[in-house]
Amino acid sequence: MFDVLAYLFEEYQDPEACNDREGVMRTLAAAGFEDADINDALDWLDILCNINEGAFAAMDESYGLRVYSDSEQKRLPTEVRGLLQFLEHHGALSPAQREMVIDRLLAMPDDEVNVASAKLVTLLVLWVQKAELPILLGEELLDVVNGEPTMQ
Question: What family name appears in the similarity comment (predicted)?
Fold first, then answer.
């Protein structure tokens, strides 16, 4: 599923282009993805696109520290929680966006929840919301899609 989501992010500049599910499925199948992975990824993306931002809007008005529940701590590795805190602290994510990222990470299979998937989910949340990506942090997030940058 991770590879399908990365491919969608790379290939489609506008998330609304993914509304043609049949067309996107054909494109993904032609690119060599398995039907089960395609369906899982598109279902996951549909939920992200249809998340009621109002459900998380109150988070942007709150102040304080995000405390993770026991079940969240078990599913989200320390490095992922640290990344989310870093991104929020540096203005790449609002508290509401952070909660959307957490929601979508928890919807992924356990073996796919890691720093790379957290970066991709962050990019997808910002992509769906058509939010601006902070330049310096954007390079770090985009390495998950484009590969590690090389020094020149």
Answer: Belongs to the Smg family.
